[in-house]
Amino acid sequence: MKNFSTDRVRLLTAALIYGVTAITAQAKTIQCEFKANAPDSHTVVKGDTLWDISGTFLEKPWCWPQVWGMNKEEIANPHWIYPGQVIWFDRAAGRLRLGNKIDANGGAGDYKLSPQLRMQGLGKDAVQSIPSGAIEPFLSQPLIIEEDELKNAPRIIATRENRVFLGKDDKAYVRGELKGGTSFQVFRPGKPLTDPITKKVVGQEAFYLGTLKLSQEADKGSDVHTFTVASAKEEMGKGDLLMATPPMPMQNYVPHPPEVDVNAHVLAIYGGVTHAGQNQVVSINRGKLDGLDIGSVLQLYHRGKEVSDPGGDKGWFGMRDPKVKLPDEQVGSLFIFRVFKHISYGLIMQVTEPVEVGDVAKSPE
Questions:
Q1: Which residues contact 177 (CB under 8 A, 6 or more apart)?
Q2: CA distance linking residue 117 with residue 104, whole number of Å
Q3: Hey, CA dihedral for 152, 240, 137, 334, is it positive or negative?
Q4: C-beta of residue 342 within 8 angstroms of C-beta of residue 145
Q5: Theoretical Cys-Cys bridge with 74: which of 41, 70, 310, 342, CB 3.0 to 4.6 Å?
Q6: Domains by residue range for the chain, with CATH
Q7: How far apart (Å, rounded) are the C-alpha atoms in residues 72 and 65?
Q8: How far is residue 350's CA from residue 337's CA, in Å, rounded to a whole number?
Q9: Cα(250)–Cα(91) distance, rounded to whole angstroms?
Q10: Is 285:196 a contact under the CB 8 Å cutoff?
Q11: pTM score, two decimals?
C-alpha cells in the first residue's frame, strides 16, 4: 500500500507538471503586446468593462490574464476592480498593476489583493467583463436546446377550462418527470441548428414563453402535476415543453484564450438575420465538452472560398480547372459568455466585416 501511494503521488505530480507545461507552452504561442500609445495609467470609471480596459493597454484584450500573472481561480472570479481605482502600466516590467492615485513617495502605490478581498469583492459596482445589457436575455432563458434535452421533457397537456392560451396565475396541467424541480421555464422548439460542416442537427432554437411554479405534485398513481403560471412573456399552451430553471451562470470571467485549441463555426445569428455586427450574439458549434468556458475569446474569420486556377495543373484529361482554397480572413473577435455541452453563445466584440453563418471561430494565434 505504501509503494502504491508513493507511485500514485508521483503520477499525480507528473500529471500536474505536464498540465502546467502544456498551458505555459500554449500561452507562449500567443504574442502579447502593449499598444504603442498605451497610457501610463487609467482611472476606472463606472461603465468600464474589463474588455474596454484591456483594449486600452493591449493589442489583444485576451492577453489580460498573462500581463497580470493571473491563475485560473482569478480568471473565473475577477471582481476586484472598482470605479475610482487606478491601473498603472509598469513599462519596465511589462505588467499592469492596480494601485492608488499617488503614494507618499510620489509613485504608484501597489494595491494588495488579499484572498479576503477577493471573496468580499462581489459587489454590484465591480467592473464587468462585457456589457451585461447585451447578454442578459441569454443568461437565464433556454434559447438553445440540445438534442438530449428534448427527450422526455415535461409538457403541458391541458389547461383549466380548456383555455387556448395561458396567462399569469392561470393553472396548467403538466405530465412528465420533474426530478424534484418546482420552478420551470416554458419553451417551444424552433428551427433546428445544423452544423455547417457535418450537416448534422446539433440542437434547436427555442422560443422562451415564460415560467411555471409547481402548485401540487401528482397524486400517487398519477403523473399529472398542477402548475401555476408565474410569468408569461409570450402565449403558452397545450403541447409546450418545460425545462428546469437553471441557476444564473457566473458571467464575469476575464477575457482569456481557451486552454485547448478550438476550431468552431457559427451556427446561427440571434434574431434570424443573415449577418451580425458589433455587440450582436451568435451561437457556435463547440461547448464545454470541447474545451470552452465562459470568458474564452475566439477569433472570427470568413472561410476562404474555393476558386478555379485556370493557369494551374489540369485535372484528369485536362477537363477542369483545379480548385484552390483561399486563406481564411480575420474579421473580428468573439467573447464566449454561455456554454452548453457542444454549443456556446458568443458576443461579437470587434468586427471589421459582417459575420455570417458558417464563419470560422478559432483560438487566438
A1: 152, 154, 223
A2: 23
A3: positive
A4: no
A5: 70
A6: 25-128 (no CATH), 143-244 (no CATH), 263-362 (2.40.10.410)
A7: 9
A8: 15
A9: 33
A10: yes
A11: 0.72
